[in-house]
């Protein structure tokens, strides 16, 4: 795995890169992805390659929309001046809720994914009591499911601990670095003397209410 570049370089190259990729994907490929997505809806259980192509194209578009929305919040906060104020923290959690709803709407439609939670213990905890949520990690998909459940079902504001390589994704990188998340660096990639986790953002010292660490 390549070493994660500095944050300023990720902002200058990766985030605009996603927008450029979405803007300049050949129309033929986009058309093929769209036709593949429509065909996969009509013929569930078949055309796996078409569904994969469509989901990759959709995720790139989804990521680009999230980056643009985050850029809008940055401008609205006074070009970053008030980005860690409670009102903008709530706005970022609200954006995460909407984006995850859109993602899982498409996942259910295209991949026929269905999951059911009979009982979430976190729902039985009083709203003003922070809780720690620990889950067995089986890939990025189940992490999205867990965070979506906490955000949209339990109406919690999860502060996530996750691997630092996920910052290669511009939307995840920008959003979670603005919230009180913690990116953990594997021991083999740490510089001598460095701690395992990235320094918490300023919002981690200001956030309050319905907090959840997962």
UniProtKB/TrEMBL annotation:
Domain Phospholipid/glycerol acyltransferase: 124-188
Region (Disordered): 186-214
Start-end of Polar residues biased regions: 201-214
InterPro entries: Plipid/glycerol_acylTrfase (IPR002123)
Keywords, sorted A to Z: Membrane, Transmembrane, Transmembrane helix
Lineage top rank: taxon: Bacteria
Keyword Disulfide bond: no
Membrane-spanning intervals of the chain: 12-43, 49-75
Annotated SUPFAM superfamilies: Glycerol-3-phosphate (1)-acyltransferase
Keyword Transmembrane helix in record: yes
The protein, known as: Phospholipid/glycerol acyltransferase domain-containing protein
Organism of provenance: Paraoerskovia sediminicola
Lineage, top ranks: Bacteria, Bacillati, Actinomycetota, Actinomycetes, Micrococcales
């Amino acid at each position: 795995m390549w070493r994660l570049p500095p944050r300023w370089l990720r902002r200058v190259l990766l985030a605009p890169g996603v927008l450029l990729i979405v803007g300049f994907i050949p129309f033929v490929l986009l058309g093929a992805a769209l036709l593949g997505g429509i065909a996969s809806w009509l013929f569930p259980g078949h055309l796996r390659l078409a569904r994969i192509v469509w989901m990759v194209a959709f995720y790139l578009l989804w990521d680009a929309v999230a980056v643009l929305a985050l850029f809008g919040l940055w401008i609205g906060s006074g070009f970053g001046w008030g980005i860690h104020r409670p009102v903008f923290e709530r706005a970022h959690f609200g954006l995460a809720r909407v984006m995850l709803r859109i993602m899982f709407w498409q996942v259910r439609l295209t991949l026929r994914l269905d999951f059911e939670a009979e009982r979430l213990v976190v729902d039985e905890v009083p709203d003003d009591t922070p809780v720690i949520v620990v889950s067995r990690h089986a890939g990025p998909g189940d992490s999205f499911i867990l965070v979506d459940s906490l955000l949209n079902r339990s109406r919690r504001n999860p502060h996530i601990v996750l691997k630092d390589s996920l910052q290669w994704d511009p939307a995840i990188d920008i959003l979670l670095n603005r919230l009180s998340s913690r990116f953990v660096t594997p021991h083999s990639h740490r510089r001598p003397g460095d701690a395992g986790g990235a320094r918490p953002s300023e919002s981690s010292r200001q956030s309050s209410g319905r907090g959840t660490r997962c």
